Amino acid sequence: MDASLETDYGALEQCDSDSSDKSIEMTKPELTIVSTGNCAAIQFGYGNILLGEKQPNIKNLEIRTIVPLQRKISERHISVINMTGLHENELNLDSANHVIGQLVNENEIHAFIFVVRLGQLTDADKMGLEWLQRVFGDKVLQFVMILFTYEREEECDTIKDDMKKNSVLEQLLEKCGGRYHTCNKTMNNQSEMRELMKKIDHLFNENKQQHYTVEIYNTTIKQGEELKNITCQSGGQKVYDPEGWDLW
């Protein structure tokens, strides 16, 4: 591959009230989080505590590396693997699997944050969660928390009504154990980010302090290869998948 197309999807950086603390890069993260979902639900920028500046456009480029973001939130060192919008890009699947496999091998993941715009659930959002489950396996759902973003605070008052009226949204939350958090799409509110960290801690304890590990990922890859082989042997006809990738 041409070296000019080599892209780092993510960057080493930090952003908090204590951003002058240069020791963050040398400190083992207390939490490792994967961010996925809809880029349009996020306003990237220096003030974005969780994700920082928007990363380079990787559409139609083969990903070679995804570098975890090193952040400091509420005196805690957080490693964020930013895969937001990755499922929307036209990427070589084998290459993506290789990079994701390497990340999982090098990081024990506490939680997956799936970002959705509050009140604007789209087909792309549905596909995004389906992609997450297909790539990381069914067990990933026990580590997922939905992060609804808003522009105006009054939007948060309607979320419970939205859940009652929208069966798809209700199903989305049900698959993720009813776990969700709301924050401004700028992600610049310290108290909202502190509360998010508390909810991730609670999720970690709910999972009996188990991480998403490379063993879980390798099992998923093996199952996918076995299903592909069965499909090929059946002459390309659709075969019943006991794991059930279709979410909707």
Structure, described:
This protein has 248 residues and is of the alpha/beta class. The protein has six helices and six strands; from the N terminus they run E-E-E-H-E-H-E-H-H-E-H-H. It has a six-stranded mixed β-sheet. Helix 2 links the parallel strand 4 (111-117) and strand 5. Helix 3 crosses helix 4 (167-175). The longest helix has 20 residues, at 214-233. The termini are far apart. Mean pLDDT is 76; it is low at 1-26 and 239-248.
Could you give the distance between the termini? 37 Å
Strand order of the largest sheet: 2-3-1-4-5-6
If you compute it from the alpha carbons, what radius of gyration comes out, rounded to the nearest whole angstrom? 18 Å
| CATH H-level superfamily title | P-loop containing nucleotide triphosphate hydrolases
